[in-house]
Q: What sequence folds into this?
């Protein structure tokens, strides 16, 4: 199969790279910060190609149903407006990046960026048919976002060097990757991209 190169029908979708999911945060993903330098390389590439960059964020009210106090399985995290909900400081999101908030009402959780948002419409309006997807966490929000993207007819390139798993149960991340590839996502690492012919800065 041809090597992957960024084209005029691609968008970069960054999932939930927020302080609370990083080491030291409220719901830290092991080595979650390792996705940041990797994503910054993809961000620079998409900026150079003038293709859309979108970032989802978990944006929960204080009494969200996914929190333990409300009977959920998670510690409180990504409370709307809090420091923990902010994008990772080292993530080089351009000012043009589109931020998509999800799981914003107390009674509903959403692991997928497509759930209860206008993400699909926004992507289609920008002429994007293929999504390069990375972020946190492989076994929750990345998995569900990739599954929905494929179900909605988008092609998906899964950024293997820009995802990390919670691994609540050992092997969850590995199983999630297998599931996404089985569903039709194409795996990519940055060094596997076709040489970039676009102007370098
Ligand atoms: C996520 C657990 C709870 C995620 C969000 O972004 O993967 N995981 N809320
Ligand atoms: Zn959450």
A:
């Amino acid at each position: 199969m041809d090597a992957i190169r960024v084209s005029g029908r691609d968008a970069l979708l960054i999932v939930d790279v927020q302080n609370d999911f990083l080491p030291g945060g409220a719901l830290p993903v092991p080595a979650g910060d390792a996705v940041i330098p990797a994503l910054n390389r993809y961000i620079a590439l998409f900026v150079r190609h003038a293709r859309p960059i979108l970032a989802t964020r978990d944006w929960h009210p204080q009494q969200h149903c996914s929190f333990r106090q409300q009977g959920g399985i998670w510690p409180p995290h990504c409370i709307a407006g809090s420091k923990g909900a902010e994008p990772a400081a080292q993530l080089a999101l351009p000012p043009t990046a589109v931020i998509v908030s999800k799981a914003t009402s107390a009674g509903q959780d959403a692991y997928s960026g497509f759930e209860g948002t206008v993400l699909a419409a926004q992507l289609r309006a920008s002429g994007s048919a293929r999504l390069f997807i990375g972020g946190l966490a492989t076994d929750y929000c990345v998995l569900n976002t990739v599954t929905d993207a494929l179900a909605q007819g988008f092609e998906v390139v899964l950024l293997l060097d820009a995802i990390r798993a919670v691994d609540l149960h050992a092997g969850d991340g590995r199983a999630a990757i297998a599931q996404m590839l089985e569903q039709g996502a194409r795996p990519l690492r940055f060094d596997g991209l076709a040489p970039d012919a676009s102007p370098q800065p």
User: Anything to note?
Assistant: The pocket of zinc ion (ligand 2) is lined by residues 58, 60, 66, 77-78, 103 (CB under 6 Å). The longest strand covers residues 155-164.
